[in-house]
Every structure is written in structure tokens, then in C-alpha cells.
Design a protein that fits this description.
Elements lengths: L1 H19 L14 E5 L15 H10 L4 E3 L5 E3 L2 E6 L5 E6 L21 H10 L26 E5 L2 E5 L7 H4 L10 H7 L13 E7 L3 E6 L18 E5 L4 H9 L5 E3 L1 H4 L1 H4 L8 H4 L2 E16 L6 H4 L6 H9 L3 H8 L5 E2 L24 H10 L11 E6 L3 H12 L5 E6 L1 H9 L5 E7 L6 H4 L20 H12 L3 H18 L2 E14 L21
Parallel strand pairs: 1-10, 14-15
Antiparallel strand pairs: 2-3, 4-5, 5-7, 6-7, 8-9, 9-10, 11-17, 12-16, 12-17, 13-17
Helix pairs in contact: 11-13, 17-18
């Protein structure tokens, strides 16, 4: 109650502040202010784009900053601050011609408090900052930038105020997609010189909104940028909203009541919504809510899976039946993904009956990548092939998971029991589970993989033989020379259709070797007030408010 009272007081203070700041809000009547409100149950740790590694940070950062390029809702890479861009024939030189009408937000770090024009040297400064591991964890994304003697150890340069050039050491087909990540936003050196490490809560960018107030853990307020460079199709200046507020209510039921009472315009995520409450078993919005809200659902570039450690150099794997491919495939065939989605997730998500790359990526094709479907008879045949006819003599297998997925893994456990595969379930704290998986302490574990950028390479990289944990994300310690050769070839392949063929070949190898049990491809799900229009939804689950009306 104290927290809610604090939030309401802050909201009132914001409204007073908003309605009295003529400089910040254009001359309109006070009662016409359009403010978009949403809740974030997680913790925003920083508004510095260099720290934009989680959705809770990325969402507000996306309102404050821009980069060279941006991604549309169909996952196409489009210009942003770069008016146009080109790639050399050898795939090693990326040239970005910048707009000349982009200005940083007004801020006291600038002369007379007026935001100055963005120039190419600002990108040099912003990119160089990412190489400092104390500032950002994005350094691995810069591995292909050529900082050798060939480029005078620069890697990138401003050839003039409006031209920024990046040099790669070898072709990397996913590079443009990587540049859409918020890490690569432009920031002014003046702000870092003034605020230092406190830039995290004093952000200065170029985005459609600028920073106003952040009471950490309670309220974040962003105000419309009247000088934003992007315009709508009719030439009208964006954004349409006057402001954005973010609340931080952790309790799901309290946040839901705030939505019902009209204090929030949106709740996002299956956990935040309590899908059993708002959706029927077919995944449709229940009638009681459909008059007041719209349901948004969209394929999410996220695959939930059960991983299997298969490296026989690890003693625990030598003693485990999971070292046998036939056992891993039997488990894949031994449970019904369709029922799991329908009855435990109210049809939020798609059964993962193709490969590991989720629906929504261009390589996704269930006809060319045939994964596992429910087939208990085939599972029994595989048990027999592995030397355990009808499951006789098969040792119990332990699956480690977090509390969030307890119901799902218990469903799998009950189905596997019917074909005499005994699965024990061990519930661990999320932090303990993550640490144990990284240290190869668990032979079987429940995890998910969310795309950092919209390229299949992001999903295939976790099976690459050189990415073994703890130095990479190959939690399975999967090593297949043919897969690795295909993966390396796909990194250099710039022809999209040829790259898709390579990815599909990799997918089929993973299905055959079965180091992973794909469960489902998740969906973005939002409950949005009917008085909101123009709110886009996309497979990256990126919140974009510049064209939202209320």
C-alpha cells in the first residue's frame, strides 16, 4: 500500500510538472496531454545503451536513443541516423552516410543547454566506448571489427562529419542485424564527461523521447522530444504522444488491477497477464476483457528447450544414458508438445516440431526441417535400439529446472513415464540453475534462448564447437565437424537464399544428433487498452512508441 501511495503521489507530481512545463510540451491544452503508461515488473538497472542487455533496459533505451540503422516489424534492416548505407563487394567495408538533421536532446552538458547536431565522430566515440568491459558486455559483438595494422588499429572512422566507415576483418553476414541492437546507439561525449558513471541515470540521446525523472524502483518518466528527426508518412513530426511513464510494480495481481482501473495502457508477457485468467484454452481473450482491451500476439524469436550435456570427456556424461543418441531421440518423441502448449500455456506459443530456429525467422520451414512430433511407438523402438527394451534397465534421469517451468516439466515427466523413461525433476533457483549449466554440472536442464538480433546465426552459434561453456553458450558441448564447417560458411555467405540453405542443413544435423529437445517457440503477448492505437508488435519484442496514439 505504501508503494502504491508513493506511485500515485509521483504520478500527480508528474502531471503537475507535465502541464506546467511549456518548454517541454508544445502549446496544447492541459487536458489534451497524451501519456502512455506501462508497468515493468523487473528492475531497470541502467538507461545507458551500453548496458542494454535485457528487455527491461532495452524498452526505455529504445525511446531515448537511435543508432545507424533500425529494424522494422518484419525484421528488415532500415536506415535510422544513417540516411543510407552500402557494403563493399568483399563484405569488409560498411559505409554509412548520416543524416544532417539529427540533434542530441537539450541538456546542461551542452553549451547553453542546447542539443548539438550529431556527427560521424560521435559514432566513433560511442563504438570505442563499447570495447571497455567495465562499461558494456557487448565486446563479443565487435569481434569482426578489424582493429589491426591494416586499419591503423582503428576499426572504424569518420571520414567527414556525415560519413562513418566500419572495417571488418572478414565477411560477417549478420553484421547489419547486430548494428540494430541498442548497444550501438549514438551518445555525446559531453554527457559522459559531465555525468561519468551516472550517465546511466542521466541519459542524453537523439530518440523520440527525452529523460525527465527516474525514481529507481518506483517511476520513470520520459517526455516528448519536440525536435525528433523522424516523420510519419504524411510528413508529420513524431512522436504523437506527449510523454511516457513506466511503473515498477512487482506483484502481478496489483499490476493487473492497475490495468483494469485504467492506470496502465498495457501489460506485456504471459507471466504478467496470468494467461489462465485472461485467455481461454484456445488462446483467445475472454469476453469479460474483450470490451476494454485488445489482445496482441506475435511470434517471438525465442525457443524454449531442454538441453542435454553430451560431452563424454565429462565424467558424469560417461555414466549417463543420455550419452546415447537413441535415448535422446526417444525422449524427443516421447511427449506431446501440442498438448503442452494448449493445456499449460493456453495456446501461447507454437509447438517446436521443426528445428531450433523459431517460427518468424526466414529459414523456418517445417517441410525442409522436420523435427520431432509425439510418437511413443517410435520412442519405444529407440529404447530397444539403445539396449533398454521397454525401458528395462534404463537408469532414472534427472532434469534440472527453475520453479517457473515446474508444471511443464512435470507434464513431460508424466508422459515419459508411460513409455518407462523415468524422469526425476529437481527444482533450482534460477541463479543456481544458470551457474550449474555454465559449469557443466547438470546433464539435463530446462532453458530458453532469445534472439539478441534477428539472424539465424544467433541461434546456431550455441551449437558451434568453439563456443563450449563456460567461454561460450554451447551448454551441450556439442561438437560436429560438418556442422562447424557449415556454420563458418554461413557467416561469410551474403546471399540470403544460400544462407538459408546452410542453416537448414545445420538444423537437420542438430535434429539427428539430438543434443537438445526443442519444446516451443514462444509468442509476444500484450493486453492493450482500446484507447491506444498504432502500437506495433514484432518478433524481437521491441517496444516502439513513436507512432502510438492515445
Amino acid at each position: 500500500m505504501v508503494k502504491l501511495f508513493k506511485i500515485k503521489i509521483l504520478s500527480l507530481l508528474f502531471i503537475v510538472n507535465l502541464f506546467t512545463q511549456c518548454k517541454e510540451i508544445a502549446n496544447t491544452k492541459a487536458d489534451s496531454k497524451k501519456v502512455f503508461n506501462y508497468n515493468e515488473s523487473a528492475v531497470v538497472t541502467s538507461l545507458d545503451p551500453a548496458a542494454a542487455s535485457s528487455f527491461e533496459n532495452i524498452w526505455p533505451v529504445n525511446q531515448l536513443f537511435n543508432g545507424l540503422v533500425q529494424m522494422d516489424d518484419s525484421l528488415n534492416v532500415l536506415p535510422s541516423i544513417a540516411q543510407k548505407f552500402s557494403v563493399s563487394n568483399d563484405g569488409l567495408v560498411y559505409t554509412f552516410n548520416l543524416r544532417t538533421d539529427v540533434y542530441f536532446h537539450d541538456n546542461k552538458c551542452f553549451n547553453k543547454g542546447m542539443g548539438r547536431k550529431v556527427v560521424a565522430k560521435d559514432f566513433v566515440y560511442s563504438f570505442n566506448r563499447l570495447f571497455d568491459s567495465k562499461v558494456s558486455n557487448a565486446i563479443s559483438l565487435l569481434n569482426y571489427i578489424d582493429r589491426s595494422v591494416k586499419t591503423s588499429y582503428k576499426g572504424f572512422e569518420a571520414t567527414n562529419d556525415s560519413t562513418f566507415v566500419i572495417y571488418l576483418s572478414e565477411p560477417f553476414s549478420a553484421f547489419l542485424n547486430i548494428l540494430t541492437m541498442k548497444y550501438f546507439s549514438v551518445i555525446p561525449f559531453e554527457a559522459i564527461e559531465m555525468y561519468g558513471s551516472n550517465f546511466r541515470k542521466n541519459p542524453v540521446g537523439t530518440g523520440p523521447f527525452y529523460f525527465n525523472v527516474w525514481d529507481e524502483g518506483s517511476k520513470l518518466i520520459l517526455i516528448k522530444n519536440p525536435n525528433y528527426f523522424e516523420k510519419d508518412e504524411k510528413g508529420g513530426r513524431l512522436p504523437y504522444l506527449d510523454a511516457l511513464t513506466v511503473s515498477f510494480i512487482k506483484d502481478r495481481e496489483t499490476a493487473f488491477m492497475e490495468l483494469l482501473n485504467g492506470h496502465f495502457d498495457m501489460l506485456s508477457g504471459a507471466d504478467a497477464l496470468n494467461i489462465n485468467e485472461v485467455l481461454d484454452k484456445e488462446g483467445n481473450l475472454k469476453d469479460v476483457y474483450s470490451k476494454k482491451f485488445n489482445l496482441q500476439k506475435q511470434t517471438f524469436l525465442k525457443t524454449d528447450y531442454i538441453g542435454i550435456l553430451i560431452d563424454e570427456n565429462i565424467p558424469s556424461v560417461k555414466q549417463s544414458p543420455l550419452k546415447l543418441k537413441a535415448i535422446r531421440k526417444a525422449i524427443n518423441y516421447g511427449f506431446d508438445r501440442v498438448k503442452l502448449i494448449k493445456f499449460l500455456r493456453n495456446n501461447v506459443g507454437e509447438p517446436a516440431i521443426s528445428g531450433f530456429v523459431p517460427k518468424g525467422m526466414k529459414s523456418y520451414n517445417p517441410e525442409k526441417v522436420k523435427g520431432y512430433t509425439f510418437n511413443p511407438e517410435k520412442a519405444k523402438m529407440l529404447l530397444d535400439e539403445a539396449g533398454f527394451p521397454n525401458g528395462k534397465g534404463l537408469p532414472a534421469i534427472t532434469l534440472y529446472t527453475a520453479e517457473t517451468y515446474k508444471e511443464q516439466v512435470e507434464f513431460i515427466q508424466s508422459q515419459l513415464q508411460k513409455i518407462n523413461i523415468n524422469l526425476n525433476v529437481s527444482i533450482e533457483k534460477a541463479s543456481v540453475l544458470s551457474q550449474g549449466v555454465n559449469r557443466c554440472e547438470y546433464n539435463m536442464f530446462k532453458k530458453s534462448w532469445v534472439a539478441d538480433y534477428a539472424d539465424e546465426e544467433n541461434f546456431m552459434s550455441i551449437f558451434y564447437g568453439n563456443n563450449f561453456t563456460p567461454n561460450g553458450f554451447n551448454y551441450f558441448h556439442y561438437k560436429n565437424v560438418e556442422f562447424d564447417n557449415l556454420y563458418e560458411k554461413s557467416l561469410r555467405e551474403t546471399d540470403r537464399s544460400k544462407k538459408i540453405e546452410l542453416v537448414q542443413k545445420m538444423e537437420n544435423l542438430i535434429i539427428e544428433d539430438a543434443p537438445v529437445i526443442p519444446l516451443y517457440y514462444d509468442e509476444v503477448i500484450r493486453l492493450v487498452s482500446k484507447n491506444v492505437s498504432g502500437l506495433p508488435i514484432n518478433p524481437m519484442n521491441l517496444l516502439n512508441l513513436k507512432k502510438v496514439k492515445k
